[in-house]
Amino acid sequence: MPRMPDLPAHLDPHALVADIRDWAKALGFSALGVAGTSLREDEAHLEDWLAQGLHGEMAYMQRHGRKRSRPDELEPGTRRVICVRMDYMPPGVRGAWSVIEDDQRGYVARYALGRDYHKLMRLRLQKLADRIADAVGPFGYRAFVDSAPVLEKALARDAGLGWIGKHTLLLSRDASSWFLLGELFTDLPLPLDEPASAHCGSCRRCIDICPTQAIVAPYRLDARRCISYLTIELKGAIPEPLRAPMGNRIFGCDDCQLVCPWNKFAQQATEPDFAPRHGLDGAKLTELFAWDEETFLQRTQGMAIRRTGYEGWLRNIAVALGNAAPSPAVVDALQARADHPSALVREHVAWALREQQGKRSKAEAAD
Question: Is the pLDDT confidence value at 343 over 70?
């Protein structure tokens, strides 16, 4: 982007940032902050994480080299990063723990229940950029919403929007972690916000609750064990030792957020598009498993769930059905997919049927 040397003389930069915060809130963002471009410590942390192979099959994490941690190299001319938060927990959603504890229902991460946030937030960021341009004239910018190699949590921390918790998610004292992040890389010489301080203390509830023990140390996630990775990013077979710990989580996982003490300060979403679609905040597994591909594509139109693909959807639900209490309905649902054209689906269905048989045998022996 072309470098803007200075703001127009009649503009007070601090007043401009205050106005930008107001415009952002009017667009549905819950908070806004301004960060610089230096992320050297975070860069070292990322490179160590990658060197240990903790990113699994997410090759894109290292594809762009250090551009991920150097905003001014990813987008030349960047001087500041305007970071925004948007709350996504919809009001009236079925209680998360009540779904997780009901093995006949499928658990979907709460950010994915409604419309995919990527396009929604990018459009809002574009409107914010247009509003800024009305005030300052043409300026250089580029909007990102989890759509490019950006260390968004580190930037949001430096912008004062929260601190990175031991579960590696961003935490806010007034909003917990139930929010999404977006950025405007810009050439505007705006005043910087103070970075947020950390407030996890000695707490390790997120580490202890993780079903697959993916948080291998404070601030260190082994993505290869993370249920979000297994159900979304991984395209092949889910490792057998990790299937039982997944329980009924069929798209993502929220346990580390649900158990966080800061969760009591979570804010509900004001965006109606984040409301659950098709009863996915607690739908029956057998009903979801019965969707054919056309139904899957139709019902996940414009949703993040589409990312897992139809085969991945059936794979994930097969694991959840294998983990469910034994019942004729579960077995019937699995047997209906036993000859599925996909070898990936067939293998997970076969595993689930063996699990069901083993549970029935144990129950009969106990009687």
Answer: yes
Q: How far is CA 349 from CA 67, 282, 307, 320, 352, in A?
A: 41, 22, 21, 10, 5
pLDDT of residue 3 exceeding 60: no
Assess whether pLDDT exceeds 70 at residue 4: no
Binding site membership for [4Fe-4S] cluster: which residues?
Answer: 200, 203, 206, 210, 226, 253, 256, 260
> pLDDT by residue (tens digit) across 222-238?
999 999 999 999 999 99
pTM score above 0.85: yes
Instruction: Pull the structure tokens for residue 144.
Output: 């990102």
Note whether 190 and 17 are within 8 A (CB): yes
Q: DSSP for 304-357?
A: GGGGGHHHHHHHHHHHHHHHSPP-HHHHHHHHTTTT-S-HHHHHHHHHHHHHHH
Quickly state the pLDDT bin for 255 (edges 50, 70, 90): very high
Beta bridge partners of 89: 268
Please give the backbone phi and psi of residue 176, each rounded to the nearest 5 degrees, phi first: 55, -130
- Active-site amino acid positions: 146
Q: Read off φ and ψ for residue 81, nearest 5 degrees.
A: -125, 115
**β-sheet bridge partners, residue 116:** none
Query: Can you tell me the distance from the alpha carbon of 24 to that of 40, in angstroms, rounded to the nearest whole number?
Result: 28
Radius of gyration of the chain (CA): 22
- Tell the burial category of 247 from Cβ atoms under 10 Å away from its Cβ (0-12, 13-18, 19+): buried
Burial class (CB in 10 A: 0-12, 13-18, 19+), 171: buried
pLDDT at res. 43? 93
36 is written with which tokens? 């610089």
Q: Which of 41-55, 60-74, 116-130, 251-265 has the least mean pLDDT? A: 60-74
Residues of the chain above pLDDT 70, percent: 98
User: Can you say which residues are annotated as belonging to the binding site for cob(II)alamin?
Assistant: 68, 146, 170, 181, 228, 253-254
Question: What residue numbers does the annotated binding site cover?
Answer: 68, 146, 170, 181, 200, 203, 206, 210, 226, 228, 235, 253-254, 256, 260
